Amino acid sequence: MIEVRDLHMHFGGFRAVDGASLTIREGSITGLIGPNGAGKTSLFNCIAGVLTPTSGHVLFGGEDITGLKPHELFHKGILRTFQIAHEFSTMTVRENLMMVPANQTGETLWNAWFKRKTIAAEEAALRQKADEVLEFLTISHIADEKAGNISGGQKKLLELGRTMMVDAKIVFLDEVGAGVNRTLLYTIADAIKRLNVERGYTFCMIEHDMEFIKMLCDPVIVMAEGKVMATGSAEGIMQNEQVIEAYLGTGIKNKEATEGLTKDAIPAPAKKTAKKKPPPKSRR
Q: Which range of residues forms the domain containing residue 14?
């Protein structure tokens, strides 16, 4: 579905993405991992149209979409969420969902005056769809709550719900599990799995929680220093020496050497000998 060919994103002399090439299969949940500064979010931004790459190409179903703007990609079914949720805080959760579909009749002043029946019918259909999405995500109980008042995990579910209000083909999730408690994390994971299996959504997700990645993703792509380091199953990636070194700065070989270092091998500090006090002077 997505093919990235030799992509570069430079900021002056800094190469955030430095010749990355990868593919995302249709119908997959692909994980994208790597240490901080590996270029993951910059790669996402290039694919999703937030940034125009310095060089290289992004293809969607064989079509070159390099440099297209986010709203143009939105109409093609390419959506993304952000690490920090972006909600309309003073609107209700339901209203946030109803805002998503483009080209609504009530968006123009002329129609607002002269096509009120059409607008009412359209909004009723949107409301019904929003309620279906809320039920799917098990957050119907917060439908009328102001979006600014809900928890961080619920905001992540709301962002996922937005992708369900349109005909999304592929969704890029940027650390959807960051700062989310474990209970809601499992709810989010279940929603992603169901969207993938029941509705044919393709996902690519940046995540640092390896248990979350292991639960959902196959394959997993590892980035480091702006390049793709490895691709494989979650199990294989977690045992890859190069990946361990990229994350922790030390490999399995060095681990064996450090395990041999015990307290007995560290020389004890020399004991200080107490100085003898001189005898007291005679008062005579």
A: 2-91+165-254
Rounded Cα gap, residues 131 and 143, in angstroms: 8
Ranges assigned E (strand) in 82-234:
170-174, 202-206, 220-224, 227-232
Torsion of CA 50, 55, 56, 62, to 10 degrees: 60
Task: State how far the Cα of 203 lies from the Cα of 191, in Å rounded to an integer.
Answer: 12
d(CA 134, CA 175): 21
Write out pLDDT tens, residues 217-258: 999 999 999 999 999 998 898 888 888 887 766 544 454 443
E strands, the chain, are 2-11, 14-24, 29-33, 55-60, 63-64, 78-80, 170-174, 202-206, 220-224, 227-232
* 119 within some domain: no
CATH code where residue 215 lies: 3.40.50.300
Tens digits of residue pLDDT in 79-102: 988 878 888 999 999 999 999 988
